[in-house]
Amino acid sequence: MPALLLAVLAAALAGATALAAIWGIVAMISEPSAGGVAWICAAWVGAALLAAASSWLAHAVEATFEARLRRTVAGRVLRLPAERLSDYPADRLRRLVSDDIAALHHMIAHLPSEIAALVVVPAAAIVLLLTLAGPVALLALIPGVLAGGVYLAVLPPLSARHGAERGRVMGEITTAVDDYARGIHVFRSFGNDSGALATYTSATERFTAGMVAWVRRVATPAAVAVALLQAPASFAIAYAVGAANDTSTLAAILLLSLALVTPALRLGHGLDFVAAGRAAGGRVGELLSEPALPTGGEVLAGVLNADTVLAETGVSIAAHAITVRVNDRAVLSELTLTAPASSITAVTGPSGAGKTTLLRVLAGLHTIDAGSVIVGGTSITEISEATRADTVLLVPQGVAVLAATIRENLLLSAPGASDAECASALSRAQLGARLDADAATLSGGERQRVALARAFLSPAPVILLDEPTSALDAATTGRVWAEIEKLAHVEGKTVVVVTHDPELAARSDRHVALASAQLPSEPELPALGPPISGSSSPSSPQHQSEAGTSA
Amino acid sequence: MTSAISNTQAGLPLAARRRLARVTLGWVAVAAIEVTAYASLGFAILHGGGAAPVLLAAAAALAATVIVSRQGYLAGARLAGDLYGEMGAALARAKLSWFTAEHRALVTAAAGRSVPTFMGVPAHQLQTLVLSPMIPVGMVVAIALVSGPAPAGLVLLLLGAALTVQALAQRGLARADTRRHEAERRANAATLELVDRLELLRTAAGPVRALERAEQAWAAQETAMARTNRAAAPATLVSQLASVLPVAGVLIMLWLTGGFTDPAAALALLVLTGRASAPLDDLALIGISLSELGTHTTAFREVAAAPTLPRPLGGVADAAGGAASHAGGSIELHDVSHAPALRAVNARISEGERVHITGPSGAGKSTLLGLALRFDDPDHGEVLLGGVPLRSLAETALAGRIAYVPQEPVVFTGTLAENIRIGKPDATDDEVRGAALAAELGAVVRRDPRGIDQPVGSHGQGLSGGERQRVAIARALVSAPPVLLLDEATSALDEATEQRIADEIVRRGSTVLFVTHRRADIWQPHATIDLSRTDTP
């Protein structure tokens, strides 16, 4: 903060010094002197030095701020409970972590020079003008005042409504074009891509028509403001006012007549920065007020060094009477389950029975409404977040990989693993790929095996696998399953597997079947709940261009 | 610079280019009128003339600026329309194999960013692009008329020097900045990876370690940013000094030559020099703003140039359509090869046959189905549907004969019925309901009083993975095609449901090509195409 104030001060001083140079020129016209020339040049150098210092300070402050903010925001995103994540689709998160942080960063970076240019310098210039040329000279400021008035009073109300509308239609365009590109194979293979294209076309036509209608309304005032900000208008009035005076007074009026034009010119952009920054601040604040997963503090004995005697002690995981509700629908209801060490516990059930939710609950990633999850005698919420993934490792169903080498993908779960250990884990997962191969080029089945290799590499005593073989053929599935059995029976790990493969469930040591609907008390099936599409409508696009709002 | 402008214009539709040209000419006229206004001001100061001509010239400059700005704003808005139209046409032409995840992101970027950026060109950038070089040049001429050729020569030299210093300062800054751009790109990629791979990072690494990956990229970017900032401070200093250089030079010249003995002439020269040097900052930055425009608009140009497949001529399509109707459901593969995996595949599938396509991951199973749908033309060989080469089938004729259920079901925001009806836009409610029941969606239909008109949430998020797959199957069933292609279409279903769906499809008797890693026998295949064998000659 003090650094930011210092930056404002330097920017203001730079502006004042530049005004002093103009004053010097006016003095030269009436009383030329060698000292005058030197004084003017010194003032210019001083102004330049101060401006450079101010800009350096402001950027240094803003860099520190951005660094802290993005770590805070990212940290919070990583700690959102799984059920809250559904309110944060990828679009929204992307906007939060990149565009919103950038908007706040711009607001701070430009604040000092904006304050100086919008407040300090015009005030000083008006005082100087009054002193040198008297009140009549203020007439020369009319164009700047008018232009400022247009930017402050005329355009914002015209733009506010349109801005929201444009954001909405722009959102429709990106959604339509995204839907079109996502579904083009389906549309075209059914011969009706014209329908989807029509959605896009009508959205873009509405955008263009809305844009043209809006521009028609604001174009004239905006164009007038732009024109008033060109020097001829100010100069002409200055000349008309000052022509009758002596040359030095005329010089003062002419040279200071642009005093309000420069700030008015920045008014549009300056206000945009502030508005964008405030909106972004609101959205970031919303994220930061979300609940977060507990950070915990406990470290289970033996978890941090994988070489300890896990096989002998064993760490079981148990869920006691857990209830999970999402949008008032019970996804899991009073479910109790124990998965002992050195065994495979299979979880089966029809789709929608809450199998994936159960694994997230066991991994401590999902909030539970009632009940508890106990890992090796400690509640999952009390285990330190820093070691939670090293205690209970969830291998989710998706086949996402980092766009990096296979090695980097594996090291996520075991940062200290050697190449030999990585290679062994890969071969146990039945994937014969090189460690430095690009994971992004792998097929779905290969990616699934990279994910599975983490289970063999991780030090975690509890391994949760969500449909680990869904993309594998029967032969590979058999070999992978044998390795999973070894993981449990030989290495003493606690393995919980969600699967819809009855053969695998039968081969497991224990089998838990979830009922199709977890609705013990209510006989009537509640409706799925109103669609959330209204609340999770696609966020408006980031780069709405600024046609007409500023010049 | 001209080449940079024309490069930016490449790939724009003709109407858009015309609009840009009109606005450019408008700004050229504005520049001329503005220079005239300054010249008349200079003459008035010099001779102590009346204010009327000055006011008149300023009014003309004002009016011209209003007209051209307005025209620029409108041109920007209409340009968006031109470009969105062009993009729509390009998407409609593009071959389906082009629509990869990467290109889909490109399309979204083009619609959401490139087009709005282009919109700002006639509205804002053209004014700077035209006025900033023209005003200084025009002002030198005006100074020659008002103050004489010698001061004009001096101002020209000073402007050249100031511009050179400015450009050098900006170049130095840009050089210091190159490493930051790369660091910034990495930092942004790391940030987006954090969001896009959130589930992976949360589960595999936990919240603390997950951040470590991004942390490295961020720290590097912050170091690069600090370096740029250190380089920016002297650059700001130099560029500020350069912008006052012309006025300072004239001031010193006036002092040395005793020019202040005629204060009016001195003032006129100082005022005109001030205006001549005002656009230098913008002028020095033109290169940078053009290259930025270039990067912002690459996405659009790439989408506009999306590759297409040759389309059959109208007559051929008609004839072919007629021919195909005899044996609509047979498929022949003649020596089909397609990079990277498919090599010389031959097959003959008669109408009503069910064929299991098998092979290890990466053997080209999905690619083969894609070729049968003409997502792309094979690198070598030919695919025939109903005895007619796909290349000579009209798109509608092809679509009417084949339905496809992809590996990842695509469900749109809307109702169950809307999603199913994509398979047959004119299907009645009963047909839609029938297809939903045939695809084992009965429980879903019954659990909401709105039945098939229940909403499925944003992109089908209200449905489970298996339910979304069944919606995609219902969509294919409602279109009742002679040929059905199933790519792991039932991978998320339990066995009993899968069995019932397989029975239903077998009962319908259409030609079926299917890929599954689960039990293939429930589909009662007549034959198997094993792609692992085509690999080894």
TrEMBL record, chain B:
Gene3D superfamilies: ABC transporter type 1, transmembrane domain, P-loop containing nucleotide triphosphate hydrolases. The chain crosses the membrane at residues 20-39, 45-68, 128-146, 152-169, 235-256. GO terms for molecular function: ATP binding. Residues 331-534 form the ABC transporter domain. It comes from the Bacteria. Residues 54-292 form the ABC transmembrane type-1 domain. It is found in: Cell membrane. InterPro entries: AAA+_ATPase, ABC1_TM_dom, ABC1_TM_sf, ABC_transporter-like_ATP-bd, ABC_transporter-like_CS, P-loop_NTPase, Type_1_exporter. SMART domains: AAA (SM00382). Keywords: ATP-binding, Membrane, Nucleotide-binding, Transmembrane, Transmembrane helix. It is a multi-pass membrane protein. PANTHER family: ATP-BINDING CASSETTE SUB-FAMILY B, ATP-BINDING CASSETTE SUB-FAMILY B MEMBER 6. This is ABC transporter ATP-binding protein.
